[in-house]
Amino acid sequence: QLQLVESGGGLVQPGGSLRLSCTASRFILEYYAIGWFRQAPGKEHEGGADISSSDGSTYYADSVKGRFTISKDNTKNTVDLQMNSLQPAGPAVYYCAAAGDTDPLLVSTYAYWGQGTPVTVSS
Fold first, then answer.
1. Is 6 in contact with 24 (CB distance < 8 Å)?
2. Closest CA to 42 of 114, 91, 111
3. Which of 20, 67, 90, 103 has its CA 20 to 30 A from that of 119?
4. Do the Cβ atoms of 41 and 107 come closer than 8 Å?
5. Tell me: the pLDDT tens digits for 35-87?
6. pLDDT digits (tens, 9 = 90+) for 6-37
7. How many Å apart are CA 104 and CA 102, to the nearest integer?
8. Cα 38 to Cα 16, 26, 52, 90, 115, distances in angstroms
9. DSSP character for 26?
10. Which string of DSSP letters, residue by residue, matches 28-97?
């Protein structure tokens, strides 16, 4: 019931787009905010985007504002991350995670994490 599953990762060229999806239970989506994070090998999680459970408010890290869009589909029990104008980067894993509606994108507040989906932006 507290499981999150990411999908949609892959290899994409710089400047391209990719859409990631996080599937979670209706319970999680109703009571928890959902965030998307990026983690490169040997690095800390970097916050990307978050969507509140209470009113659907969205929050974005400065590095992705204007390029990424987070959205929730209650009929499919998913939270998607549309990523546009992707910048060159080595391999990384994107995670979705669930937290109480307290401090968006603060990693320590997210109690439940998916297994991640790999993304590489390279030509």
1. no
2. 91
3. 103
4. no
5. 999 999 999 999 999 999 989 999 999 999 999 999 999 999 999 999 999 99
6. 999 999 999 999 999 999 999 999 999 999 99
7. 6
8. 17, 24, 19, 12, 12
9. H
10. HHHHSEEEEEEE-TTS--EEEEEE-SSS--EEE-TTTTTTEEEEEETTTTEEEEEE-SPPPEEEEEEEEE
In one letter, which amino acid is 67? R
Question: Which tokens go with 26?
Answer: 């209706």
Tokens of 1: 């019931």
Question: Considering Cα of 76, then 78, then 79, then 80, what sign does the dihedral take?
Answer: negative
Q: Are 115 and 5 in contact (CB under 8 A)?
A: yes
* Residue 72: alpha-carbon gap to chain centroid: 11
